[in-house]
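Hi R.,

Here are the chain sequences for the assembly we discussed:
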Amino acid sequence: MRLPPQSCEWVDRSQPLGFRFEGRDYSGFAGDTVASALVASGASVLGRSFKYHRPRGLLSAANHDVNALMQWGGTPNVRADATPLIAGMDLKAVNTFGTLARDPGSALGWFSRLLPVGFYYKAFHNKRLFPLWERMFRAMTGLGRVDFATKRLHTPKRYGFCDVLVVGGGTSGLSAALAAAEQGAQVALVDENARLGGSTHGASELVDKVIAHPRIRVFTDAYAAGYYADHWVPLVERGRITKMRAHAVVVAAGAFEQPAVFRCNDLPGIMLASAAQRLIRRYAVRPAQRVVVLAANADAYRALQDFADAGIAVTAVIDLRDKVPGEQAARVAAQGIPLYSGHCIVEALPAADDKRVAKVRVAALGEAAVVAELACDGVFMSVGWAPAAALLYQAGTKMRYDDGVHQFVPGQLPDGVFACGRVNGIHTPESRLLDGERAGSAAAAYCGFGEVRDIAVKAEMESPTHPWPIVSHAKGKNFIDFDEDLQLADLENAIQEGFDNIELMKRFSTVGMGPSQGKHSNMNALRVLARATGSTPGAVGTTTARPFFHPVPMSHLAGRGFTPERRTPMHHRHAAAGAVWMPAGVWQRPEYYAVAGQSRAACIEGEALAVRNGVGLIDVGTLGKLEIRGPQAAEFLERVYISKYAGLKVGMTRYAVMCDESGVVLDDGVVARLADEHFYFTTTTSGAAAIYRELSRWNTLWKLDCGIVNLTGAMAAMNLAGPRAKAVLEGLTNVDLSLPFLAVREGMVCGVPARLMRVGFVGEWGVEIHVPAEHGAAVWDALMEAGKAHGIRPFGVEAQRLLRLEKGHIIIGQDTDGLTTPGEAGLDWAVKLDKAFFVGQRSLMAIAGKPRRQQLVGFMLPAGHQGDAPKECHLVIEGGEIAGRVTSVAWSPSLARHIGLAYVRPGMDAVDSSFTIRLSDKSLVTAGVVKTPFYDPDNLRQKETT
Amino acid sequence: MSAITFENVSHTPRAGVKGPGAAAWLAALDLPVPRAPNSWLPLPGGLIARLGLTEFLVEGSEAAKLAAPLAPGVYPVLRQDTALVLHGARLNELLLETCSVDFRALDLSTRPVVLTSMVGVGATVIPGEEGGMPCCHIWCDSTYGEWFFETLTDVAGELTQSSQPRHQGATS
Amino acid sequence: MTCPVNGPRAISEFAYGGEIRPMPDPTTCSDDAWADYIFNRNGSPGVKREWWCHTPSNTWFVAERDTARDVVLRTYLYAEES
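And here is the predicted structure of the full complex:
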């Protein structure tokens, strides 16, 4: 029921908002949460529980009411107690089979004896039946529904910076923020509520001071989702994540009020006293008319005033403590409220419609005899607190159990992390103010602003938390974990079965593993464990509270991803020519060029044949392109490549293979010597960035007199190849094209400075043309234009793969893996073990004396092979055992055969022998070992110079 | 009106050089050499930036001077950058969404040069101020240039469209 | 992580290059000693000297890191090693 306007209420009565819940129309105000608007409209049941489908209402109103999860259109698991009401919302309760009001699933409660703790582990370990159970349980227990039609959201992420980040805008947090800012620090203050003020609900002078302070940035309706190294804290707002980098962090996150455990403590209408206060003060909602207050601390008695102001009649105060401090007892007496000290509620009973608590039974602590049965429509509990210490744990704080306040408090804080207020075990309002000032000052001083203020904070005189707010009951239903419907007996049984360590008990019983992550259950659970094992809560300890503090929407985490895409200078030429793109690392490369009316295979074959019979042009600008200069440039190359380069003649190139220190092939390319002290060399496309970085590291270590420049992006490169290639290039360059195979020349192409390398990768007369990137497209255009008369075709990566395979050239990473040595890949000829030193040399020497593991061979299927051909990664089978694998395979139009490369066992590599390959359908095909190159075995075509 | 303007200045002449002899070589060419690593100095119609310890970027007409004969320990760096100048009231927000460096903490009077990663691409950034509004000069590898430009303008467009964060539920 | 040239930066700007370990003399060491260098790493927690690279500027440097606490004690250029 809505109360008359309250001072400092958060709702805006001038803005009524209509919404729907479970098909019924409701209304609330701007500033309401979904739950406050529903409770204001008289709804008591907001959802049903996960396991037994029991009706549940509001418990915490503090973002862990996981039994009030709702589906809103495509958004699942909307937390009613923390989600602002928006006009037009159409909400449905999540855990219902039928409707919220009539849920046949609630019959599960009758079978709860058949659903013992660890039920899943015990019942569903049968492998064969598991998929069946899995489907059934996913349908039964799933929280919400994913809408696959939801549009991709680009939720922004941004970086933030501050000196001191204060987490929590309650009394101690406000005080800390102010103290730090006064000392000169730039402060960011984050609070998950819509307004600052914490348990004062905004009615605090401090709030105004903080908001007005020029050095304090306030984030409300946002939460610190986790703590990461170097004081990095993501602040999750509704439409954004701010990745806040702080120099110091003050955790003033407060504490979660904890429920008492008694039979049917989950009935709607039974809630934490702080939840009732939130409803009254923030939303002007009266959650009940006649209530029983279950107390064990001063907070409960302070709350009585709020209840009285809201016109709520308190039938009785039941206090777990034997001795109620005089001032508190006097307050009750003054209002004429009966006080049962040393008593507890042992059982709550529902009204006839099951939708609300109707009465409670009271007994002396430890006794079974009911001394009173009190009618009520609400129970407000204030029996203790558990620190909201997740961030402190994540930061590496050593927590200790303080017997004075019966809670965990920071024992040893990491550098730059501070704690104050309830999370620090300080509960009295005046003390929280002081403790905040102390922590804020210390945090600012830690960042170099001002001096640490000398502030002594008094220890609490009485414990705000009862050490055992738990009552057993023969009939159970005394819930400890509302997420997972875990009762006291479930935990006791788990402990009896031997899961008597907090980590084991958690996993077996699933306590604390639901969406609220134990915010209201972990403390009571570990008390149960401590008592059952004759230990103490401090010795039992807590489990680690991992990020995130609250669930973060997937759309936030996915956010706007930055996946850089690299395009060569000829990118748009390829697009215009019909390129079908494929990613190659960060690059986009043409896989092939689509021709209208032709299949992919036909296009690729056409491109390959153009190179074989006429001329083709491929963009190879994605290759790593490096330059090294200096007196020791040759020495450097000698050390990083397995072949020799000191003797390489100026104007010549040489194939280059790089190994790591263990002798495994890392990369390959071509080294060109442009001058005595000047080399230009290439790396593979995928290796470019890593190889440049690794070479830089070697150069840092060796301190040779040479310098490496990375020209990968600065140079465009293309390979013009085919019997007609020379004719195409002739009119466009001043370089004498009778240059020998493997020569390199610097000259002009189409009027721009270029480096020409005579290469043979695809097995025809070819030249790689490297020009500054800005000229790449113009040179490409000129070559295509000049090539028209010769039938030039651009060719893509697939055609190049086929052409090189016909020549038996390997591709690093495809025909090699993370264990391949040069010898295994058929590169023995390139290894010069007689050099003074190169990376991998010592390992290759050791390997040379050992039997070879495998050998790469060329293979061919018989002419006229019918049926499927092998694919890459198909296995070579010998005597029923795996004896190798296919690394490359293709249909060669030039040879009219299936050809490929495969690793086989040593001894299976003799030319003209054969082996079998197992296809995906498990059929076997026979392949013959063939000497490579398959095509033009004497390499006459590529070497031709006339 | 767009809150952030983008100017593509890739066509400006520029040249680079690196190596242990680079600083002395540039000085001998009568170019002012920034003393501190990662700082820059103005040149007539351009600038000279020291990238790290021993690499330099010269932009503007003075870049032509770097065609001079090399000396020992001097290695030319072919510059083919995509170069952008960004300017506008909301530039800082754009930087916060795209780069982890706190540009507002920099002292512009020291003429800082920042080698960092923006939207996942290695970039060189010179922050500045013009007409009372933040501006910055950004260089990146031109093969990343198009994607870099598209991504920055996309983020900038989003900033201009809405100053309020969207609500998570407003999806269906 | 603080790059000695570029200053403190987000860890995402850095690449790890492994612990700095002296290479045994390949011409004199045994196969076993060499294999130990190649394949074995010291995983015991403690202060390690590590290669790190600030990738946007391609700056390699040395970080002394306490791997037990994941705290970087200091960073410096390899050439400046004291």
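Chain A is about 25% helix and 30% strand. Chain A has a mean pLDDT of 94.

Let me know if anything looks off.

Best,
T.
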